[in-house]
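My hope is that you will study the record closing this message with an eye to the fold:
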Amino acid sequence: MSSKLGRRRNALPLTVSRPALLVDGSDLVFRDVLHDMLAFAAVIEEVRDRLGALIGLSGTQYTILTAIAHLRALTPDLGVNQVAEHLHLSGAFITLEVNKLVSAGLVTKAVNPEDRRRVVLAVTPEAERRLTELVRVQVPANDALFEGLSAQEFKTLRSIIAKLAGPGDRAVRLIDYLAPSGQLDDVPPDVRPPL
């Protein structure tokens, strides 16, 4: 990125107000970061969708299956809520997708002996087989996605992404609060969100 970009004056109003996000009073660098993040997110989704398709799943189902496989090693009584929290998705959505994975013979649901209202999730041997075969493509794809990062940069990225993933839901709720009808015309020009 050129240093001129960060110094050029905006023709449009600022899109952020936090000083940490402004460079020389401009939000152009912030916008560049967002655009780069959107481009990377699109690539990650495309890779996820293609990896899922290789084992007969949608990208979302593939993500949920791999989450169950990995989290189960850490949490023997893994339930829907833990998967939902880990993936930053709703429990209702995870339940719907898990039911599809159960129907496909890739996930099992058993009653949790400590709380009979909950289920314990596990992957089946068929799921393990598919995930094991997938690493032939998954490993080189993931290596390529992150090839530009050193170990320290990866550690820093992990910390930053963890900080960003949490407040994402708050940003969505703020948009709903500021524009409850979904129309910009209904938002007063001087409205400030509650902090």
